[in-house]
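Request: Mind sharing a record?
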Amino acid sequence: MKVAVFSGSVYGVAEDVARRAESMFKAAGFEVYYNPRTTLADLLAFAPQALLAVTSTTGLGELPDGLQGLYAELRDTLPGALRGLPGAVIGLGDASYDDTFCGGGEIIRELFAELGVVEVQPMLRHDASETVDQEDDSEPWLQQFIDTLKG
């Protein structure tokens, strides 16, 4: 199975989590595409069979600047090639921002719904104020996602 991972990061933590996911997918025998600065053309050229998004949250619950371009391309074109694919989201945020906690992840979840990507696992919400090692803490959730994709 071909899994595309994309991320949006402010301080690099989302990229670190995405790279951990990439290595776990590869170890499980998946073909993986990950580029933190991917474009829609690159993503579609890979022809993914599943999607994983990992994103930080900035400002008042917004996506990081590095993910804005891909988000806009996906939202504006709604590529049919992604419809029906299994997907999941890891959101990073700070729970002290009650209303916008993991807002970036929620934006991607809404986009996935518009695209017809099937959320096969609830979003993992990392609280940066409590989580020491978000890469390690993501592993059980990622393993569950891998197991779900293997069916």
Observations:
- Residues 91 and 106 are 8 Å apart (CA to CA).
